[in-house]
Design goal:
Largest sheet: 3 strands, antiparallel
Distance between the termini: 54 Å
Oligomer: single chain
Radius of gyration: 30 Å
Strand content: 15-25%
């Protein structure tokens, strides 16, 4: 369940609002009053913690000469014969 941050809406404009957290299901309606005092409240949107780790890449480079580069498990561009009982399935998509 997510934690939501609420802030009281003081009747006096000089008064400081009070913030508190509430565990709620996402389907629950936002609170309209503070549970302990009954003061009107509003939900506050806060930023999450962003984690950025060094060394993560957004793309992967595939070695196309590797046997793992194709769905059938063979490297492309090299003439070869498959062992008995193993062959390309229909729609393999590459030539040998």
């Amino acid at each position: 369940m997510p934690t939501y941050v609420y802030e009281t809406v003081p009747a006096d404009s000089d008064a400081e609002p009070r913030r508190f957290e509430v565990f709620q299901r996402m389907q629950d309606e936002p609170l309209e009053a503070a549970p302990d005092t009954g003061e009107p409240v509003r939900r506050i949107i806060t930023g999450g913690i962003g984690i950025r780790l060094k060394g993560l890449k957004r793309s992967t480079v595939v070695n196309k000469k590797s046997a793992a580069a194709t769905a059938c498990g063979c490297a492309t561009g090299k003439p070869h014969r498959h062992p008995p009982g193993r062959s390309h399935g229909p729609g393999c998509g590459h030539k040998h």
